[in-house]
Structures are given as C-alpha cells and as structure tokens.
Amino acid sequence: MDALVAAFGLFFQLPVILGTFFGVAMGMVLGSIPGLTATMAIALIVPMTFSISPVVSIGMLIGAYKGGCFGGSIPAILLNTPGTPAAAATVLDGHEMAKKGQALKALRVAIYSSVLADSFSDIVLILVSPPLALIALKMGPPEMTGLIVFSLLIITAVAGKSLTKGLIAGVLGLLVGTIGLDPIMASRRFGFDLSQLDEGIALMPMLIGLFALSEFFINAEAAINERRVRIFDVSASPEDSRLTTDEKIACAKIVGMASGVGTLLGAVPGIGPSIAAFASYAQARKMSKHPEQFGKGSVEGVAAAEAGNNAVAGANMIPLLTLGIPGDVGAALLLGAFMIQGLHPGPLLFKENMDIIYAIFMALLLANIFNFFTARQYIKIASKVAAVPKHYIFPAILAFCLVGAYGFNQSLFDVWMALLFGVIGYILRRNGFPVAPLLIAFILEPILESSFRQSLLISQGSLMIFVTHPISAAFLILSVTGILLTIKGRIKHQAH
Amino acid sequence: MAWLKKDVIVGLALALSALMLHLVIIPAQVAPSPGGPIALSPRLFCHITAALLLILSLNLTVVGLKSNDTGDDSAAPATDPWRVYVRGFIAVAGSAGYIVLISYAGYFVSTAIAMSFFLFFFGAKNWKGIVAFQLVILPFIYALFVKALKVVLPDGFFF
Questions:
Q1: Could you tell me if A269 and A217 are in contact, meaning their C-beta atoms sit under 8 angstroms apart?
Q2: Which residue of B has its CA nearest to A457?
C-alpha cells in the first residue's frame, strides 16, 4: 500500500503527464510514417530521456510504445506497409477496406479495437504480474529454451501460407542472429573482416528493409501506364466511414476474444504482438458469420488483428518486468531504456522497486487514454494520404526509410544493411516466404542460443535435460503437438 | 522442364547455401572450439541452424516436385514477368546508387537527385509537381531529423 501511495505521488505530476502525452503523439506520428516505425520512435526518444527523471522517462517511453503500436496500423491500412511487424496482420483486411474506399472506417475500427484490448491487458497485468514474478524465478535455461522454441514454432505456423517456408524464414533469422560476437566465448562470427559486424546486424535497418523497402521494390514493379494514379479512392458515403450497429456488435465479440488471446500470448515470454495478431485473426475467421469476407476487406478482420496486436502491449510487460525478456522489438528497446535508467527488470524488481512498478502501471493506463483521443484526430489527417498520387508516395517512403535507417546509429553501413534486407525481403516475398518469422527469430536468437548452450553445460552435453525438466518438456510437447496439428489442418484444407 | 517450378529452384538454392555454410563459410568465419565441452564451441549453434536449413530446404524441394501448381505465391502479374523483374532490378540499383551518391554529394543533394529519378520512374510527368514535392519533403526531413531529433546527416565530399 505504501508503494502504491508513493507511486501516485511520483506519477501524477505535470511533467510526467506531459511526457506521456508527448511520447504517445511522437510514437503515433513516427509509427505511421513508413520506414520510421514505432521502434524508431522509441529508439529516438531514448536519448532524450537521459537527462530527465526516471518516472518522466518511463511515461514518455511507454507512451511512445503504445502510440507506436497503434501508429503502425495506419500505413498498414493506407499503404499496405505495416509500421510494426504485428501490423502485418492488419494489412490483410485493412488495406483491402481502404481500396474499397473505407479507409476511415478501417482506421476507426483499429482505434477502438486497439484501445479496448490494450486497456484489458493492462488491467490483467496489474492484477497478475506480482504473483507471476515468483513463478518466474523457477525458469532456468532449459525452460527458456523450450519456451522460445515453442514461440518460434507458433510464429512460423501462423505467419504464412506454407509451414515449410515459414520455418525456413525462421531458421534464416536464427542464422542472421549468429552474426557478431559469440554470446559465451565472445569470439567473432561471420565478421567478414568488417568491424561494423562485431556487434551483429542492427535491428532497425533490418526491420525497415524487410518490410518497408521490400514493399517499395514490389510496388516498383507495377507498370507506369496503369490507369490508377492514386493508391485508392475515398468513398463519400457515410456508411463507408462509420461502423453500422451490426458491425459494432460483431466487432465487440471479436475484440473480446482477441483481447483474451492477445493477453494470454503476450504474457508468454518471447511471444510478441505478431503472433497474437495472427492467432486472433485466425480465430476471428472461425467465429465470424461471414468468413468468406476475410482477406477481402472484413471489418472483423481488422478488429481481430488490431485487438490481438495491442492486447499484447500490456501483457508483454509481464515477461518484460518479471523475467527481463522482451516479447517484441519495442519491448526490447524499453528493456534497454529501463536498464539505462537503473531499473533491472526481473523478479527482484518487484521486491526492490514496487513504487516504480506501480508508476509503470499508471503510465500504461494514462497512455491508453491519450492514445484514444490523439488517434481520433490524427487519423483524419493521415487518411488524406489517399489524395496523394502514388508516384509521390513511394519515393517519399524510400527517402524516409533511408534516413530512418541512418538516424539510428548515424552510420551509412546501416543504410546499406537496410537495402540488403530490403532486397532479401523482396526476394523472399516474391517467392511466397513470410518475413515476420525471420525478424522475430533474429530477435530471439541470442536468448535461445545462450539458454541452449547453458543447458548443455549444466547437463554436460546431454540433451535429456530438456526432457527431464518438466516445464521444458511441456513446451517441447506443445511444440510438437502444435506442428502436427498445423500440418494436419493444412493437409485437410488442401484436400478440400 | 515442368519439374523446374519456383519452389524446387528455391529449395535447391537454399540447400546449396546450407551446404556452403557447413563446409566453407562456418569453418572460415567462426573460430573453432577452444576445447572442453561442446557447448562452449562458437560453431555449435551455427552448424545446428545450417543443418535445419538444409533439411527444410530439401523438404521444400520435395514438396515442390510433388506439387501440381506452379508454386508461385508472389504478387507479380503473370503476364510479362521479365519486364517486372527488370523494373524491380532498376529500383534496387537506383536505391544503391542513391546511397553511394550520399557519400559524395551529401544527403540533401543526393536525395533531391534520387527523388527526381524515382518520381519519373513511378510515373510522375509534371515537373512542377516534382519541384513541389522536393520543396515539401526536404525541409520536412530537415525539420524532423536535423532540428527536432538532432540527427547529423552526411555532408559528402562536395556539399
């Protein structure tokens, strides 16, 4: 109780409230510009927080994280270019709705779904995380290995049409993750005599290249004598900008389901919003009365993807705060920023800094409120992009992508990396490979490799350690079961 | 040559890459084990992932050979595929040229040149629109990155 009172005193001050609002606004704007991404918003805010108090920093960073989570759906809907990996699920129906002239409706669905789901998961976080910290102390290297393998298999199963291609993309991500210094022996790997590779591939250029630049190259293929000058036209009909009562009822059920799915998945360490978004989307298609409309501009599809995606934001804080494991790119940056501020996420944080924990909870709830009101106004501006001819949009995307890749470390090497991954993403996408598993596997590789090798050291080289530890064995059984069920489902689908 | 579907070609290419990794690249680029437990070897995880890549790519090849469709999941139009590949290649080459130019001419000059090229490439015909685009985008990037976010953009040799 004393910690809660102390947190109130810490948090409800004008600088903290203004900092949270600033973070939300900046996260939303930067997250909505292709090539800049929500992660860039957090990365660019981090240096600003060095000279301000920890609580203001926390408010600003969490605001940017939340604002960016929603902001990433704006280019996903308007430009078919997700601003975050998780928004890749929003593209499936969001951009189709925009092409039918319903861009504003899609954006409105995205706002309501995001804020409702996010608030739900924040409340779960507040109620569940302290006791979960005790359980987290029981997670050792074998358990972490099993967990991350399970996480990666879920991503590859839902991210694309082909399980094999999804797995290949994941393995490629793991391979790319081995570039740099070995986590245990600190020897160079795949340096190719380039000192810039000693710390491995930077995350931001990879994200920008795989998603935004690959989209640029795919659109460059289109013939210049196409009749359509604009990306899409905006319908003047009120029905195409607002939800009908039936649509609201249908979406409410979907948002409820996706909030639960996103919160559950987000609480699992290593699982980010991408999984939750795709899993929610898949479940929504089963629940919907009109599953045939999914992939062609279904309001329920957008609601499910956005609710699943954003429900992770609060729940993601559970493994982040209790175990120190980020579930996605943005959470990884938050982890770094917290550590810079002297906070070390993990079980001990709940013992020693409970007032800071409560301040984080308050920042999460306040950021949701700011997110809602800011987004309602911002989408009216953002949707004007429909009026801009696409021969202006795509060169602008390239300019922002390259300056975004450069701005992170102020290095031209990162720009070349972004281009390289843009080409890799372009080739992968043209051949039917999903790129989200590659990115997520890359992020999780250091944890997976360290845990795996530590487990082998403990067991003196025996793989039985992953079976004799119950939690690890449970995750491995779930992984195998999940893969078998996925294969069975796809064989059944192909037979139909 | 019906067996030469896209998935088969991609699978074989990946399998070859996996073998190259195992036999050539990992031995050349990753330090050997310092002795002691295998878990200490920097090459362990690299070999495991390369082996997984080999297995999965062979699986993709087999699936591709068994499949009845062309295995084309891409978004490219079916007609005149070489023209679209050429346009894709030009976009990649143009982007690479843009980055090279940044080192010599600085960010803003090279961006102005590259944007003009890509505007024509994407179908802009009105030169006034191109100029207006530059007058909006370049000051916006300057205001956001240089002034607000304090990013120092490259100057180049000449500017």
A1: no
A2: B39
